[in-house]
Amino acid sequence: MSKKKTFNAKPFAYRQEIELSISTLTNLGLGLGRISLGEDAGPGWVVMVAFALPGERVRARVFRNHANYSEADLLEVISASPHRVQPRCALFGRCGGCQYQNLRYEEQLEWKRRQVAELLEHMAGLALPVSPVIGSPRPFGYRSKITPHFDRPKEGRELAIGFLRQGSRFDIVDVPRCEIATEPINARLAAVRDEILRKAAAGDFERGATLLFRDAGGVVTTAPGDRVSEEVALGPGETLRLAFLAGDFFQNNPYILPAFAAYVRDQAKSSGARFLVDAYCGSGLFALASARAFERVVGVEVGESSAAFARENAAASGIANATFLTGDASSIFSGLDFNGGDAAVVIDPPRRGCDEAFLGQLLAFRPRAVVYVSCDPATQMRDLRRFLAAGYAASAVQPFDLFPQTRHLECVITLALAGYCQGDAGPR
Fold first, then answer.
1. What are the residue boundaries of the structural domains of the chain, listed by start?
2. What does each C-alpha distance from 200 to 155, 173, 413 come to in angstroms?
3. Residue 77, H or E segment
């Protein structure tokens, strides 16, 4: 990394080498340790080191000092964790896509559980048990969508096609093969890379681009507007086939999807609600997976294209009790003809969490139960405080590892309105 003119040299000089012990992992996947500055009896100055593991003694080189912690690059593992393993990918440590390929998979799951528990306690004030993380049936070769990038070709420089370098917002690492992507994607990636490199050598590109590879049942497309379909087996004799556009949002680990969708359905049903609302329904995954457990299911989606696919998917699966509405963001629940006391609501918002307008509408609707699915437990815990203040109690916290080898996970929190218990027909 190049030295910045404004580098803050306290408490460490630029590129100063230090030794420290790593005690934990942050929810960003960074090893965290403390080092004594010798000037007080406090717990020590926090240093975060990517790719260092708890229990290790490491040598690191500082590249940035913040107001209350420093960041450093890992130079050497002096004493290794017993859970350290050899990464499968030769690019691990340079490519920013994976954080945990050097950590035994069972330990990845345990650390993710601990991170959820810590966020729950520190951000929401709850010391609630967090269930063991449900792992992916495939720790590698699971990802059904990737989006590699390349920059505008520059004369005299080899074109890199891949993902951002660890710690960089601009520099791209060349990735000929992605170990967490499915084999059909890797086969197609090789062919597309050859074509791009040939065209770049001929001067065909004036700018860079982001590519798309979507694997749906072993068929890989690279066009965002292509129609694709994914099969989800929920149990004996119960299979959904969901159609959507390749560029649309859809969960990217099909191997864990059946257990994931079934859990959300069972949590919603355990509330005793007659009706289910899927408030971010997309092409209908949770709504259709849950339809046979409720009298009626209503999916709400702000995008007409996704709502149209949800209707089509319901018809293709023979589900007649599911309705899909294209809802205005300012009136999500206005089209419902039942009250919240009879309903459970599933929400699966974007990474940024729920916005204030949506939360206000949801809490005004006052469903008897909410099943909150999140790909970012930190924003989920932030929103959880609003539910607790509105009279909801968390009854279950279940993480799912949809993203092995990375710091990311999905977390499902089940919330019940005060006065309702599981299976109740009404408030107490």
1. 17-84, 109-138+226-417, 145-221
2. 10, 17, 48
3. strand 69-79
d(CA 25, CA 109): 12
Q: Quick one: fold of 109-138+226-417? A: Rossmann fold (3.40.50)
Which residues, at least 6 apart from 99, have a Cβ–Cβ distance to it below 8 Å? 28, 29, 30, 50, 51, 405, 406, 407
Active site residue 410: yes
Element spanning 364, H or E: helix 356-365
Element (H, E) at 42: none
Question: Residue with structure tokens 């994607």?
Answer: 185
CA dist., res. 32 & res. 18, Å (int): 13
Identity at 68, one-letter amino acid code:
N
Classified by CATH at the fold level, domain 17-84 comes out as OB fold (Dihydrolipoamide Acetyltransferase, E2P) (2.40.50)
Bridge partners for 393 per DSSP: 416
| 295-326 per-position pLDDT tens digit | 999 999 888 889 999 999 999 999 999 999 88
Q: Of the listed 179, 375, 411, 421, which one is catalytic? A: 375
Q: Is-contact 369 273, C-beta < 8 A?
A: yes
Asked if 56 is an active-site residue, the reply is no
The residues, any chain, with a CB within 8 Å of residue 427's CB and separated by 6 or more, are: 341, 368, 417, 419, 420
Q: Do domains 17-84 and 109-138+226-417 have the same CATH topology?
A: no
Count Cα neighbours of 349 within 13 Å in the Cβ-side half-sphere: 23
* pLDDT tens-digit map of 198-249: 999 999 999 999 999 999 999 999 999 999 999 998 888 889 999 999 999 9
Helix (H, G, I), strand (E, B) or coil at 246: coil
Residue 405: what are its φ and ψ, rounded to 5°?
75, -5
CB distance 226 to 213 below 8 Å:
no
Please report which confidence band the pLDDT of residue 2 belongs to, taking 50, 70 and 90 as the band edges: very low
Q: Sign of the C-alpha dihedral, residues 314, 318, 322, 326?
A: positive
What one-character DSSP code corresponds to residue 291? Answer: G
Q: Which of 56, 281, 410, 411 is catalytic?
A: 410
Q: Give CA–CA dist 145/116, Å, rounded.
A: 25
The gap between the terminal CA atoms of the chain, to the nearest Å, is 61
